Amino acid sequence: MSLGSWHESLGRFRSARGAARVWALTPAAGPLLALAALVVGSFYLFAGTYVSTILEDALVFAIAAMGLDLLGGFGGLISLGQAGFLGVGAYGVAIAEAHGFGPWPAVGIALGVVLGVALLTAVVAVRVSGISFVIITLAIGQILWGLSYEWTSLTSGDNGVPVTTNPSIGSLDLTHPEALRAATLVVFLVVMGLLLLVTRSPFGLSLRGLRANERRLQALGYRTAVQRYLGFVVSAFVAGIAGVLYAFANHLMSPTAMDFSQDGFLVIMVVVGGLATIWGPVLGAVLVVLFQQEISIYLSRWETVMGVVFIAAVIFTPDGIAGLVRRGLALLRRVGTSGPPPATTHVEHRVTGSEAAPASPARADDNATPLGSPRPSVPTPEGP
C-alpha cells in the first residue's frame, strides 16, 4: 500500500471513529435510542394498518409483562398467575358495563376489584418463596380462570362478556381506534416511567436485596415479608391496568385470556426481553405478539418455532434482547475509544549552528573494553 493510500484510509477510519465516539460516549445515547424507537413505533401504531393492531396488543401485554418483571426480575419471585389479574381487570370493566355502569365508573370498579383480589391473594402467596411461590401463583391463576369459566351467571362462561362502550376524554372519543391507541400509548409510557422510578427507589432496592440475599436483608432489619407483599400487589395491579385496556381494545372478555398459556407467554416476554430491566419485556412482548398474530398465519406450528427461539435465547443470551442491546452499545463505546496503531511520522531534528554530521559506524577494535567492564579514563590535554 502506498503512503498516500495509507493516509487516506487512516483519515476515513478516524472520521468513522470520531462519529462513533460522539454518539456512543454521550450520556444521552440510551435515551436517544429509546426516543428513536418511540418515534418509529408511534408511526406504525397510528398508520391504521394491521401492524397498528399488532403494536396495540403488544403495548397491552407489555404493561402486564413489565409488572411481572418488577416482581420476578427485581424481586426474584416468578409468578404464573399474572394473566389471572389481567383477566380480573378486563372482566371488571365488562361486567360493570353489563350492569349499567358507565365506562369510567367501570374502570374504577375494575381497578378496585383487582386491588382487592391482589391484597387477599398476596397474603397466601408471599408466605413462601422459590418454587413454592411459583406453584401457589399458578394455583391462584387457575382458580381465577376456573371462576371465569364456571361462574356462568356472572361471566357467561365460554361465551364471554361484551364491552359495549369505550370511555371518552373530553372531546376525544376512545371508540375511535386511533384515539384508543393514543390512550394506550400514554398509559404504557406512564406505567413504564412509574415502574422505572420504583426500581430506583428504596423499595426497589429492597426488592433487589430479596433476590440477592434475603437473610442478609432480614439481618439489616428489613421486614422482607412486607416487601414481597407490596411487590406482589403492585405487580398484580399493573396487570389489572393492562386488563382494562385489553377489554376496551377487544370489546369482549372470555376465559381464554386467563388460561395457563397466557401466563407462559408473559413469562416468555420477560425472559426473552430481559429480566430486571422493565424496558426489556416490551421488546419481548413485541416478539411474542408477532409470533401469535403474524407468523401464525404462515406457520401452523408457530408455537414450536417460538419454543425453539425461547430455548436458544435462554442458552445463548441469558440476559435477553436487552442484553444484546447493552453489548452493542458497549461495542460502540470500545470502537469509539480505541484507534489504529500510530502512523510513522517524520521527526524534524532541529540543529543549532551548522548541520550535524552523520555518525560514523563503529569499528571493531581488538583492545575494545568488554561489555560491563569499567571504561578507561581518557586523559585531557593540559592547558598552556
UniProtKB/TrEMBL annotation:
Keywords: Cell membrane, Membrane, Transmembrane, Transmembrane helix
Domain of life: Bacteria
Region (Disordered), start-end ranges: 340-384
Matching CDD domains: TM_PBP1_LivM_like
Membrane-protein topology: Multi-pass membrane protein
InterPro entries tied to this protein: ABC_transp_permease, LivM-like
Parts of the chain that traverse the membrane: 20-46, 58-81, 101-124, 131-149, 179-198, 229-249, 264-290, 302-325
Protein name in UniProt: Branched-chain amino acid ABC transporter permease
Principal localisation: membrane
Coiled-coil spans in chain: none
Keyword Transmembrane helix belongs to the record: yes
A Pfam family: BPD_transp_2
Subcellular compartments: Cell membrane
